Amino acid sequence: MSFAQATLASPPKGLTTAQVLERRRASQGNDVAAPTSRSYRDILAANLLNPINLTLFGIGAIMIAIGRFGDALSGVGIVLFNVIVGVVQEIRAKRQLDHIALLMRPKVTVLRDGSEQTLDPAELVLGDVVVLRPGDQLVVDGTVVGDGRVDMDESLLTGESDLRPKAAGEGVLSGSFCVSGTALVEATRVGKDSYANQLTARARQFKVSHTPLQREINFMLRLLTLLVAFIFGMVWIASLFIQVPAARQLQMASIIVGLIPNGLLVMIVIAYALGAVRIARRGALVQQPNAVESLSNVTVLCTDKTGTLTANKIHYADAYPVGITKAELESLLGHFAHSTSALNKTTEALGAALPGARQLLSDEVPFSSARKWSAIACDSAGPNAPLHGVYVLGAWEMLAPHTPADEGALEQLRAWSDQGLRVLAFARQPAAFALHNSEGQPALPDLQLIGMVSLRDELRPHIEDTLAQFAANGIAVKVISGDSSETVAALARQAGLRGELVTMSGPELAQMDEAQLQQATTRATIFGRIAPEQKEQLVKALRTQGYYVAMMGDGVNDVLSVKNADVGIAMQSGSAATRGVADMVLLGDSFESLPLAFREGQRIVNGMKDIMCLFLARILYATLFIIAMSVINVGFPFFPRQNTLFVLLTVGLPTLALAFWARPEQLTRRTLNRQIAHFVFPAGIVIFLFGLAVYLAAFMWAGQQVARAGMTQENLVSLLLSVTSNNHAGDSLAELTHEYSLTTAQSALAAFLVCAGLLLIVFVEPPTRWLTGGDALSEDRRPTLMAGVLLLAYVLVVVIAPVRELFELMPLPWWIYAAAAGAALACGGLLLLAWRGRWLERFLDIEL
After folding, report:
1. Which residues of 770-805 are buried (b: 16+ CB within 10 A; e: fewer)?
2. If you classify domain 3-19+107-199 with CATH, what class do you get?
3. What is the DSSP secondary structure assignment for residue 574, as one 8-state letter?
4. Tens of pLDDT, residues 773-806
5. Domain 215-275+600-844 has CATH 2.30.30.230
6. Alpha-carbon gap, residue 295 to 539, rounded angstroms
7. Helix 246-257 × helix 640-647 angle, to 10°
8. Is the pTM of this model over 0.70?
């Protein structure tokens, strides 16, 4: 029997199918769709149209205008590669997340053609009659019809957490959610006209929320932009004095601007997108981009008992009568459970186990997590009306002020609580009594205790293993529940929560000042009889003390705490309001997938550490080369095409692979920064020093080679034209000798940088212990094999003449390549000594 049929003498039948079609043709549908992720246009614009890319595109356009098509292509090649990879990965992630979000769209129960139907919110039309039950979020504006009564939470609209009672004729707003009671609501405003859609028309636009790691990288990029601007200015001024050709100035400009690692930000986006998809495959939907990184930082997980430790299923266990027989008590409980209009897990369990008949009610107060009790009033009498007066079922702590205690009942309550059972008190007032005062607020009369009832929670499967994984990841678990502390503690022990379980109750917390509350949140593990606003206080107290807090909940009483946590986690079967404010939703209520999601977050951050090490080391040694060459005045160290080659081989392709292969590792923000600094500074400095030696040695050898071989101007022009596209006709022998020496030195430096850069890939993921120093042992041989394959690719570039000429590389004697490789190996050996001996830290007298 539907709710409407059960509560109304002449229930509304709702709209007919014909009326729905007519109103939809009249554009009176609720078909305003809120975007679940970024649009394709936004993804393309974010990856393509950033200041660095636009600058490089501008330089490329100028190069095309002067006929240097190859330089234009190579100058923006890495940018285009990053754009393509970023767009493809984000679109793949978007499609999967949109599909999952579509499956997660909340359903709405409406009356149509006289029966209840479950629909997608977009299928509603003006005039539809919506059935509103506890935990449902209203998706249209409407008016309560019939004799239903609900308590609505409008905090997401108004910021006020006080419940608003709504009865027949009163308006309810979209975006609010039902805390207790059940009612029928006739839709009066739908689609873009509804209050929530008007309020959030602009707020629902996708907006990137930068994570802590992204903020740090953005800060670093701004500093690098200033540094690049300074270097560019100095090099440009110097080039004016020594009359560097305009084409060469553009080549230099493209390389200098390329020092800003816009690809690093793209790699972060890719890593987060990959993480979101991986986590979704493990049973969790990431709704906020920062949730992926945030998961890796969690130190405390606050969780409700119901739906997390337990499977959100309870069963009737036993009853303890006071002043009546057990049979009479169970009969009254059965009638009570069958008479309440707003069903919940407790009344469903009692109704399933105890027979009873629905009674005619004169008043009712549905269960509320804030009150922790429900009540009905019956003024009928006679054999067909076994309930007469007021009957209240709820937590003993809440009924105690209205009910004389019974020692036997209290002793039984403690015994059941110690066994982990959920215990409720059942009391009555034989005289008829209105359950609402003159202001419409719930009020209780003096009561007589007639018994205690116990219910058994069903533990989640694999819960003990799940809690053990939390402990292994260094995550402390705190259980926050509306049940008694003793019951929750006993249940937590059954679930496998280890250690000393210090308990604290909501009434105790209410008596504490701020300092005492913070101390209690740190010391206690189990919190019982906690009101919804106290959950929020506990989360804020933990965050104030520096803990990174994840809050997991499923009910409407968890909304505020989930919203205020560093990471909010909701159950799929939980209320729509809780899912709406959560950063992550556990699909299929898969609690056991959560440790895997935490590990995935750690994997992503660890992968970003390796990626940042490679990017920043390259930026450091490239910057030092440009500055040093400007001082020494022996030419610019790179051609754009050469730069494209070794950036692609040592940073572009490897970082993409490292994002896929990253392994989980728990890193604090301080540890992450220290490890990056420990790797980057020695690597950048040592590679620069060895590379400078290779460059200068090759430069001098080439100059001497011209003299020894007796090379003429025609020989040099022909040789240079086969490598570069610069026109050297009319240049003097000295100018041609300098150009030949410069191109030879650049080619030798490129060989060294490729070998040294590929060694960094091995060092950032060392497969064996004797290669550790810059980073910890990973035992993953895939990065090393990848470095070998990329080295082979470089050898093919050098050997195949057309490809070598494409990248403007001078053909060199075999022994120069061997010397460059030997210098890279010597550089690697010195780096290992520097890392292991912490030479830089000791020289600067700092601790990294």
Report:
1. ebbbbbeebeeeebbebbeebbeebeebbeeeeebb
2. mainly beta
3. S
4. 888 888 899 999 999 999 999 999 999 988 888 8
5. no
6. 16
7. 20
8. no
Q: What is the three-class DSSP state of 187?
A: strand
How many whole angstroms separate alpha carbon 183 and alpha carbon 131? 6
Sign of the torsion angle spanned by Cα atoms 548, 552, 558, 560 = positive
Of the candidates 141, 55, 44, 38, which has an alpha carbon nearest to the alpha carbon of residue 95?
38
Query: Which residue did the predictor score with more confidence, 644 or 834?
Result: 834
DSSP per position, 267-328: HHHHHHHHHHHHHHHTTEEE-STHHHHHHHH--EEEE-IIIIIEEEEEEEEEEEESSS-HHH
- Return d(Cα 449, Cα 255) in angstroms, integer: 83
| DSSP 8-state assignment for residue 820 | H
Q: Which residues, including other chains, have CB under 8 Å from residue 373's CB and lie 6 or more apart?
A: 365, 367, 392, 393, 394, 395, 398, 399, 444
Whether 184 and 12 have beta carbons less than 8 Å apart is answered as: yes
Q: Element (H or E) spanning 527, and its range?
A: strand 526-528
Question: Token pair for residue 547?
Answer: 């803990």
Ranges assigned E (strand) in 366-465: 373-378, 389-394, 422-429, 448-459
Q: What is the pLDDT of residues 691-703, one digit of tens each?
A: 999 999 998 998 8
Q: Where are the domains of the chain?
A: 3-19+107-199, 215-275+600-844
H-assigned helices in 710-847: 713-721, 733-764, 782-799, 801-806, 814-837, 839-844
Element (H, E) at 585: strand 584-586
Which residues carry out catalysis?
A: 304
The tokens describing 199, both together, are 């309020």
In the chain, the amino acid numbered 718 is: S
Q: Return the amino acid letter for 572.
A: Q
Q: What percent of the chain has pLDDT over 90?
A: 23
Alpha-carbon distance of 121 to 615, in angstroms, equals 47
Q: Distance between CA 845 and CA 848 in Å, rounded?
A: 10
